[in-house]
## 1
Amino acid sequence: MRTGPRIVPIRGDYPEFTWVAILVGWAIGVVLTVSVAYASLMLGFSIEGSELAAILGWGILRGVMRRTSIVENNINQTIASAVNGASSGIMFSVPALLILSKKEEYAELANIDQPLLILAAMTGCVLGLCFVIPLRKQMIDFDRLAYPGGIAVATILKSPGAGVRKAVLLLGGVLIAGVCQIGVLSFMGEDHDWAVGQKIGLPPMLNIAFFVSIMTIGVGYLSGKGGFWFGAGGFFCYFLLSPLLSNFAGSDVAALTSDPNGMRVQLYRPTGIGMLIGAAIGGIIAAFPMILSAIGALRGAGERTAGDVAKKDELPIGMLYLMIGIGACLMVAIAWYVGAGQISPMRAVLMAVLGVLWIWVAGVIVAECIGRTNWSPLSGMTLIAVTLLIFSVKGSADTLTTIRVSIIVGAAVCLAISQASDIMLDLKSGYLVGGIPRRQQIAQFIGTWLGPIIVVWLMVLLHETKPGGMGSDSLPAPQAEALATTIESIVSGDVPAYRYTAGAGMGLMLAMSGLGGIGVLVGLGFYMPFSIVLTYTLGNLLRVVSDATLGKRFGYEVGVPIAAGLIVGEALVNVGDAIWKIFVPAPVAETAAVTSSCLASWYSFLLMGV
Amino acid sequence: MQITTTFIAGQVLLWLGFLGGSLASVFRFEDPAAPWQTIPWGQYLISAAIGVAGIILLRRDKATRNAQSAASETGLESVRRELAAAAERVSELKSNLEDFTCEEVLAFIDDKCVTHLTEFADGRMVLAHRFGSSVYATIMTEFASGERYLNRAWSAAADGYVDEVEACVDHAHTFFQAAVQHLQTAE
């Protein structure tokens, strides 16, 4: 090849899976994990680490270390986000033990066996990865799911070579989203819903409110028309079911229709969880021939035309099966050991089998939801996991043991699901930059073990050092608090299993209709707040209009880099905001009003400047 | 897509069934004395039966449509043409690689390959309808590998690793040729 005007030719191996990528990935992963895990405890939400890791890796590998390899940075972000995968998985579940332990009857739950918890978490991570890796072919190669987050990461990774124009579009998107999000945080605070419906006098039951987030529009744009059924699920709830219920249901349900949030929490969300389960099972049945073909293709890689290359592209399927077997045995041992003699070996086996099966089903659900919409119903899937586990032990052990064993095995399941969605997103970005899947899969395993150690250590440290510990004002842990409340309800038998079952039937029906993937999307529309669904639908519409009027090439060349920038910009501002809230003490009421007014003035000034 | 009476009837029944079933699922608050009685199961099952009738009609319509799509040469011709064009472009890239700079490789992939790859991917389902899931999987496995190696060639060219560009273009060429060959064999 000839020497060009801009790019200097380099001879030799293309750096990809290097020690530098591993070490930088671990380092960025540790920083991200500590920050995100702390933010999860303080604020109750988690942050997907892939985009941040890609940007940080870009700065460190290219800027500081002068290394020039897109695929090396891809391995770096894969490792870093694998480490960070433990943040939400553990912080949304295990602190529930510490919160419950504040009650006298549950005081013993505070004695957490840390090494065992870490082992359970690592086992969950490995199981989640082993179950979902064979589905890469089906979801990415055959179904070509969008994975908007993966596209955003790939756009960042490719930006050095994509030319000045695309880099400007990406940075433009980042800037627009950053300015908008600062404005949203300044003017709207934590409530990002803009209730347009109420302002123009529409009935509250229609729930016309937009989630003011330009990132959500970007995600909708990247999903394109494939995401429309997600919107349809939301419209179905608030434009069809709520009006029908307000006219024909009993007075109690009819009265609640004017409180859309109440409707969602009490009725639509549990039905949506059921739909997701039913649709996933139906989807597995419907896609079974294709899954078998994908696994067959993995097995027969060596017999292909480019056999040597193809064989080295994927991890051997036999090894994954072996690791699933070892992981399942470990789960049995952990359940039996935590059961402290109260749980029989057969119950432990039942529990582990349920947990492992649920990892597979929930892994498919979450990987598909992330692939089609970029949202993951992780908390709903964890709730189902803990419910299943509690019911599998209930009656054979006392309440304390039941809760302890269910949360520890449940945390493993939660981590498994979290890792499953993370690796699929990373594999999509890997596909787009030309990463070798096998190397990325090994990179994910290399990163995944580190997260549980850091997060468990951080959780115990914070609980012991912060005044009041977990669940206090200094460490609110909102998600774990909600899980603790739910566990108490489950233990007392208060679970809407009938609604899950009814929803599952409907989800199964849609999945079997042959209209690809609509069951999961409609179920997710029931599950998510309608404000997010509405804003997301705007993004879908934009893509459809842009493709129809400006052509698909415009979408690929211009729309995708801007949309990716929107995702990155808002994520960066949110991280900055979380850090600000954690390290800068909240102002008292009067000062808060002044600060808010100052921020608003600064924002107006900034906007005029832009 | 041609809209048939069976398709409309199937859609109407499916969504009526779904509406009825969903309505039954959220019609009442829990009765603490008998939680499972919260759902009016009779209404639910009737709705589900209507939905299943819709599914049967939709599946029959889909089977007819797939058979027509499989028999029709138009969709298949378009997919065949795009795959052949992609393979040809990669072949052209491979044979001209010695005279190209990295910048030209990037421009060639972006301008001459991406559209064919996207068009093939958009129309790929005709392969499943015509030849079944096993052949579809075989062709898509080769195609996806080819596309991934072409993406890798792009990344390597952007970073200036010329040996890797040559190796990846070579692999991509092999995989696309294999996809074309599998399609020919299937036909």
Note: Residues 399-433 of chain A form the longest helix (35 residues).
## 2
Amino acid sequence: MKISTNFFSTATGITTVGLILGALAILLQHSGNPGNMGICVVCFNRDIAGAVGLHRAAVVQYLRPEILGMVLGAFLASLAFGEYRPRGGSSPVIRFLLGAIAAIGALVFLGCPWRAILRLAGGDAYAVFGMAGLICGVGIGTLFFRKGFSLGRSQTQSKVSGLVLPGIMLGLLLLYLMNPQIPGQDKSGVLFYSIKGPGSQHAPLLISLGVGLLVGALAQRSRFCTMGAMRDVILFNHWHLAKGFLAMLGMALLLNLWLGSFHWGFANQPIAQPDNLWNFLGMLTAGLAFALAGGCPGRQLFMAGEGDNDAAVFTMGLITGTAMAHNFGLASSGAGIGPHGAIATLMGLTICLLIGFFNCKRGA
Amino acid sequence: MSQTIDTCGLSCPQPVLLFLTAVKENPDDSYTVLVDNDASRENVSRAARNRGFSVEAIDQDQGVTRLEISKA
């Protein structure tokens, strides 16, 4: 039976993947990525949005090769193992909206669930509030699922449709190679670069891209999902995905302790904002959006790599949301939440609740 | 009794949720669950085995797998 041939779908497999992801994230941090940001799917998509000029926040512009690698790695793994299967048509515009809302909520906290793990592993006490919000948001999502929530069934789509997001990522990689960073300059050809701030902190291209490809392949094989880890425990008391989540957290924590990069508390945390109410509510909103969309932002990248059009639409919504967050003053900074971050979070939460209410008992 | 549950086109966590909801109502029934992706196939199989069912997977056309699930 095919199922028994996939080592990565076993308990040992998902735990191994979690350990490797934790180690790779710390490798990226020690190779130049920002503090507690070895991998952050939302932050890195935000940096990509900045690199191509969708927003012009000068400190967060860099075409992060990790994201390109994560999609392309999942795409190649799915091709290699016969799992590339273009599908889509399950409420795509709602998924676009969920992606945008998830990005806005996550940028109020300043991190996706992957970065929440890495912030906790680095001793950032603000992340406790973000993680609590995430668990609550996912928990609210499970209430909708218990009431029959569904965005409807997807359908098989043309082979070409599944190539769109991997193709965009390949195109972005070519853009990066044709417009490499010029030291001290904020623009190279058509791409924008940060010369200070988080966008200026990055590992060398080959390390970022190589890690991204490996993460994409491993996560595609293992179905690693940070939101699913919480959802399955709350909904079914299933701890399979949670083993991967906890292994990633444990490995990152151990390596930080070993390398002296663990600093517990609120003081001097890298790229963190101090308002814990909004750390909680930002991630609650993002967690609910991820739950309704059926995957954390990383899992959406991996599913898009497998040919899932709906996950690709979610990702495009997420990139759009990151740009809105910086264009409209919704994203937080080290000083606190953005001028419109609170109202945007509450509006996003309200929209998610409405999406939940109006899609119960349908499609299933 | 045997029930058929078609989860094709549904995303996580709905395939497992539909199966477990049916099991909760009729714990001793046999089930045929149709899945159309490997993640759902693994998830439903794992959930069934955790509850003492045996699972046989039979490949169908167009990427669909039929999971025959019965009490071991």
Note: DSSP finds 14 helices and four strands in chain A.
